[in-house]
Design brief:
By secondary structure, the chain is of the alpha+beta class. It is built from four helices and five strands, in the order E-E-E-H-E-H-E-H-H. The model has no long low-confidence stretch (mean pLDDT 81). It comes from Thiobacillus denitrificans (strain ATCC 25259 / T1).
């Protein structure tokens, strides 16, 4: 079991890892070894996640989720397969932890009377400044 937080634990069998060849630095090693990791996690059908967390995770993951609700994380940052596996898993856990946080709704507030007065006074001063720039009839520039 992989511990996400105090309430959520993932079963290792829910996570599928595929190893592919990575692009980028690594010399001939890149052409020989499948060091990049494609981690797949079925968000839509995971029994480990509560429904509200599942819904937020699908929204957070965005384009990384397939139409079937499978989250795909690709990790090819490192040259070793082990570090890429750890990186992909850590990114998945971070995404789930972020989905666990419930966003508090914003309560709209009204501007204070003093701030409204400051705003109107500023507009008044600006208008007077602009009024001074107008050319008076009969005077030459």
């Amino acid at each position: 079991m992989i511990r996400v937080n105090a309430e959520i634990e993932l079963d290792e069998r829910e996570i599928q890892e595929d190893f592919v060849r990575a692009s980028g630095p690594g010399g001939q090693n890149v052409n020989k070894v499948s060091s990049a990791v494609q981690l797949r996690f079925d968000v839509a059908h995971s029994p480990s996640l509560p429904q509200p967390v599942r819904d937020r995770l699908l929204v957070l993951a965005g384009r990384r989720v397939t139409q079937d609700g499978v989250l795909i994380i690709e990790a090819e940052r490192y040259r070793s397969q082990r570090r890429n596996r750890d990186d992909a898993l850590e990114r998945l856990l971070a995404l789930i932890r972020e989905a666990c946080e419930v966003e508090t709704p914003r309560r709209p507030t009204r501007p204070t009377l003093a701030s409204q007065k400051r705003r109107l006074e500023g507009k008044q001063r600006r208008g007077e400044t602009k009024k001074l720039r107008t050319l008076k009839p009969g005077s030459e520039s």
